[in-house]
Amino acid sequence: MKYLYYPGCSLTGTAREYDTSTRAFMAAAGARLHNIPDWTCCGASAAEAVSALLSLVLPARILALAETRSEFTDILVPCSACYLNLKKVENKIRKDPDCLETINTILAGNGLRLEGKCRVRQLLDVVSSDIGAEKLSALRKKELKGISVAPYYGCQCLRPFPVFDDPEMPSSMTPLIEAAGANVFSWNMASRCCGASHMSTQPEAGMLLVTAILEQARGADAIVTVCPMCQMNLEAYQGKISRRRGRNLRISILYLPQLLGLSLGLSIKAVGLDRNLAITSRFRKKLGGLV
Q: For residue 176, which of 144, 214, 217, 221 has the smallest C-alpha distance?
């Protein structure tokens, strides 16, 4: 298994632990990741507010750079926002040849041309579809027995492109968590929005959404996600929300490759768990001698 790898901006800054754990876990699972040369920002959520065309050209440049590596067909993208931006362009150019022509006119200034040869794939898609629970079970070195994990998908890895899972009732994380030897926490917030950037622009609205998620997760030992924005929102405001609600709503928030990496025998440092903002003493105690 080999993939072109697009980390995006968050994974080189505020979500470095996601990058660290993705690289370490994928290597342990037998996959090879190769960086896209000279990659740049995909536009995140800001580009479209400036220019609709810019929001297409920035991801298109990344896809065109990927196509210069003709030996690869798949691009692995851990960040859900980056995945959404790249996937949007992948789909649009296949349906709108005029848009593709406009994009290529702009890309020609950099000596690039986009043809739509590469497939954009979210990390969860690759782990669940290509690696799979059966292989993870066979590779498991540490059983995370007794740890209850709530799978949290968020919005952007499944909407509006339901490529590998049901966006309303997602289940792709369930067998992966079970393959790690952990228990899957049953709840109804797995695909609810965390507020995304509203936590900055409309903080009260964002806080209500995060509060609902943390409330529903009571009883779990950890929430596992595949999105840096979700991770940040669920991690960073636990103290404030707990004080407002008058009860402790703190819970460990992990990235999926961190959890799976631990089950494959990787150390806390190897999966970047020492960089997480929200790892509770309860979770550390349950890990105990497992890692």
A: 144
Output the six-digit token pair for 3: 């993939």
Q: Are residues 34 and 70 in the same domain?
A: yes
Q: What is the rounded CA–CA span in Å between residue 254 and residue 248?
A: 18
Asked whether residue 129 is assigned to any structural domain, the reply reads: no
Same domain for 108 and 159? no
154 and 225 in contact (C-beta within 8 Å)? yes
> What are the structure tokens assigned to 275, written together?
């960089």
pTM: 0.95
| AA identity, residue 284 | R
pLDDT of residue 291: 44
One-letter identity of residue 49? A
pLDDT, tens only, 61-115: 999 999 999 999 999 999 999 999 999 999 999 999 999 999 999 999 999 999 9
**Residue 92 CB-density burial (10 A; 0-12 exposed, 13-18 middle, 19+ buried):** middle
Domain identity same for 169 and 31: no
Is 146 found in the same domain as 268? yes
Residue 290 has pLDDT above 80, yes or no: no
Last residue of a domain, one of 70, 87, 122: 122
